[in-house]
Every structure is written in C-alpha cells, then in structure tokens.
Design a protein that fits this description.
With 462 residues, the protein is an alpha/beta fold. It is built from 15 helices and 17 strands. The protein is 41% helix and 15% strand. Helix 3 runs parallel beside helix 5 and helix 7 runs parallel beside helix 9 (187-210). The structure holds beta-D-galactopyranose. Beta-D-galactopyranose is lined by residues 16, 19, 165-166, 169, 224, 297, 366, 370, 416, 423-424, 432.
C-alpha cells in the first residue's frame, strides 16, 4: 500500500439537514423553503426541498448503508427551523427533538461518529423578514440561544460540533452574487453580515464552553477554503490574490483560529466606507472564543488577477473592486460542472494550516465531484460506474497524504456526499454521492465509488 493514513482517521461523508431530510413535520421555513415556495422556477426542474432524499423517514436505512460502505463518521446539520419552536425564547419543537435524538443515537449505534453542524445556509425566513437575518446582531444572539439548546439536548452524545458551514457562501449568495434568497447586491451589508456571523459563531462557542458537555466534546467551524492563486508573480496580481484570500477565506478563518481579523482588512474596508460596526466587547467575544478544530471544504481553487477592466461602480462597493477572476488556460475541468480540478491545492491547504494556523487539528469536511446526467453511467446491474469520482478522490487524497506526511494535523476525509442529495437551486442536477438516488422511487443504490471507498476505509489507505 502506498498511501497509509494516520490511525483512527475519519472516513465518511457529509450532508446537511435541508438537503437530505425533506420538510416533513417542519413548522418553520428556512430562506430556501420560502424561496422555493414563492419562486419554484428558480430551481432545477422545479424540484424543491420538500422531499429531498427522505432522510427524515429513512435515516435508519441510510445510516446502515453508510456503515456498509465503511463510514466511521458523518456530518449532517440540525435545522434551526425544525428544532426550535419560538426563535426568541428558543423553546423547542418536540418532534424535532425526538427526530435529532434518533438520528444521533442511530449513528452512534452503528459506530458512525456524528458531526453536527448548526447552520447550513438555512436561516429561518422569519428572522430575515423581522430583522434582516445576518444583517442583525440580534440574530447572532438568537443563533447562540439555539446553539445552547442543542448542546444541552444532544451534548451528552455528540462529540463534534460545527457552528457554521461555509459562511462566506451565505455572504456571497445573499449579498454579492445573487444565488441565495434574498439575492441582493450590497457590499456594505455583505461586510456587516460577515462580521455578525463571526460574532454568532463566537457566541455559540461561548455557550458551548459553559456547557458541561464541552469537557468531552469539541467545537469547530466548516469553511470552504478556495486558495487564491495569482495569475503571475507581478506585484499587482499578488496583491489582488492577497485581497481575495482575505475576503474569501481569511475573513472567517482568522477569527475562528486566531480570534482576530486578517491584518489590514479593516483598514481597507474603513477607507472604502464599508467597514462593519462593532463594539470592543464584541471583538473580545471573538478573541476569546476560538475553535478546537477546523473542517475544510475544498472543491476548486480561485484564480485571480489584478483588475484589468474598470470596476463597475453602479451597485456600490464590492470585493471585486480589488481583483478579477482569471480563466487560466489549460486548467483541468470537470466537464459535468464546469469547476476546475486542482488536487494540488489540498497540499497547499494542509501546509498553510500547519504553518499559519497553529497546525490546528483539521479534517477535510467536503470534497467531491458533481456530475450531471449520471444515469448515463449505469451498468446492466443498475450500478453507476463512477470511475471519475474514484479518480477525483484518489488524486485529492494523495496530495492530502503528502501534507500529512509533512506534519499537517489532518484527522479525516469526508466526501460530499453519502447519498445524492438536494443542492440548493441546482436541486438534483449534479450528483455527488457514493450512493445514487432514484428521485421517482427514492431507491438508493451503492455506486462503484461506494464499494471502492469501503476498501479504502478497511485498509485505512490505498
Ligand atoms: C458545498 C455546500 C454543500 C453542497 C456542495 C455541492 O459548497 O456546502 O451544501 O451543496 O457545495 O454543491
């Protein structure tokens, strides 16, 4: 065997509440539930989150399948809109409590360590309508109340918590690039929301540290790190990449690990009139409540160059004032999704965490390959022969392994996702799972990659 991973390495995959469960028995709507209700056309094939992959009803069978392909761990999320009855007081919905208790118990019974995330893009719509969602610090506070309830209810069994999943995607989707409801373009709100989510995460960690359960559990955050590579070694391209790294990655990474914002970013935002509002006390909360471990979602890098076309000011300040995307000739592309494939970044991420982030314990919390029209790879036995996914994961694991060999403190690898699940406005367009889902029958079938994964997990490498 050429690539052996550390002892007790996590093998598994990640999904989320809104993408797997379906809306069964949920009394509140998230921004996505609401968006689908008012604009179903915005979703691929008009498929919404109503049924999703039916995890609400089939979690027992689904977890058994995950176990059967070798998982020792998996991540999902607790939906704020399912667990909580009244957001102000954080009183609970009894069906939500029963449901998450059963999911957690079922995973543990199967020897699959559950990692529970508290926010996977699923802000309650009521909190957007009433307060402007993440524009409001009151919502940061309400989030910490919800988090506290989760720790109290499930903290006797859940040993790994994550406050947020990919917070920068919330910022980009809701306030910059218009792919999450409410799809506004407003740089100043984007910046304030980024601060407020950092604050919400820190406040949740503060609650966690007060909970008895924190003595035997750990808390982290899940960040999609898209290393920004400059087009060239020119000073201007490097400067553009530095800003992109600060805005896209470090704006959440630095506060989470170091308790402060990346050097220089506040000055730039202030000079440009968009700096967030904050108090000293809030800064202290961020400084004093850092994570124990980091989850890194990695799909693709960010290629950046200095601005060449003039920045379009008609919508006000945007981070793109400082950089432009760079379409690198000759890059390897996933033709089914249009994303670049660059496994080398896995190594760069590992070394960056080792050298610049205290070599904090971390794991790959998502990595994967979305494929459109995957049914064309069905064989006669009804199995999807997804060699491209095996190749994708293998290539990324090799670079991860190199980083680990050189001392990076990585303790696991999760693919996105165990069972094909609903992906926001793309719905079921691109499939990512080790297990396929027939949307009409809800039949779930292990793909070739699932059998491959089982062997990898049994050997703790390949
Ligand atoms: C990630 C996100 C997941 C999933 C995945 C594949 O950015 O965390 O929820 O949608 O992309 O599209």
């Amino acid at each position: 065997m050429n690539y052996k991973f550390p002892e007790n390495f996590w093998w598994g995959a990640a999904t989320s509440g809104p993408q797997a469960e379906g809306r069964f028995n949920k009394k509140h709507r998230s921004v996505f539930d609401y968006w689908y209700d008012i604009e179903p056309d915005a979703f691929f094939d008009k498929v919404g989150p109503d049924i999703a992959s039916n995890f609400y009803n089939s979690y027992k069978e689904d977890i058994a399948m995950m176990k059967s392909i070798g998982f020792n761990s998996f991540r999902t999320s607790i939906q704020w809109t399912r667990l909580i009855d009244d957001f102000e007081t954080a009183s609970v919905d009894e069906d939500g409590v029963r449901y998450y208790n059963s999911v957690i118990d079922e995973a543990i019974k199967n020897g699959v360590t559950p990692v529970m995330c508290l926010h996977h893009f699923d802000l309650p719509i009521e909190l957007y309508e009433k307060y402007g969602g993440w524009e409001s610090k009151h919502v940061s506070y309400l989030f910490s109340k919800f988090a506290k309830v989760c720790f109290e209810l499930f903290g006797d069994r859940v040993k790994y918590w994550a406050t947020f999943n990919e917070p920068i995607v919330v910022i980009e989707g809701q306030y910059i690039n218009e792919f999450h409801y409410p799809k506004v373009v407003d740089g100043k709100k984007a910046v304030q929301a980024a601060f407020n989510i950092n604050l919400a995460s820190a406040k949740a960690i503060e609650e966690f540290r007060k909970c008895e359960c924190s003595k035997t559990a750990k808390i982290g955050i899940i960040l999609n790190l898209t290393p920004a590579y400059p087009r060239s070694n020119s000073k201007e391209d490097i400067k553009a990449a530095e800003f992109a790294n600060k805005f896209n990655n470090r704006i959440f990474l630095d506060p989470a690990v170091h308790g402060r914002f990346p050097d220089g970013i506040e000055e730039i935002l202030e000079r440009e009139g968009v700096l967030w509002e904050n108090t000293e006390e809030e800064m202290k909360t961020i400084e004093n409540n850092k994570i124990d471990f980091l989850g890194v979602n990695y799909y693709q890098p960010l290629r950046v160059k200095k601005r060449e076309s003039e920045f379009d000011n008609s919508k006000g300040w945007l981070p793109y004032k400082h950089f432009e995307g760079y379409d690198m000739p000759g890059k390897k592309i996933n033709p089914h999704r249009g994303w670049e494939i660059y496994p080398e970044a896995m190594y760069d991420i590992a070394i960056n965490i080792r050298d610049n982030y205290n070599n904090i314990p971390w794991y790959v919390s998502e990595n994967g390959m979305g494929v459109y029209g995957e049914e064309k790879f069905l064989n006669e036995e009804g199995m999807i022969v997804d060699d491209y996914r095996i190749e994708f994961a293998t290539d990324h694991l090799k670079f991860l392994h190199k980083g680990i060999t050189e001392g990076s403190n990585c303790f696991g690898y999760h693919l996105w996702t165990p069972i094909d699940c609903w992906s926001w406005s793309n719905a079921y367009r691109n499939r990512y799972g080790f297990i396929s889902l027939d949307l009409n029958t809800q039949k779930k079938t292990i793909k070739k990659s699932g059998y491959w994964y089982k062997r990898v997990t049994e050997n703790n490498g390949f």
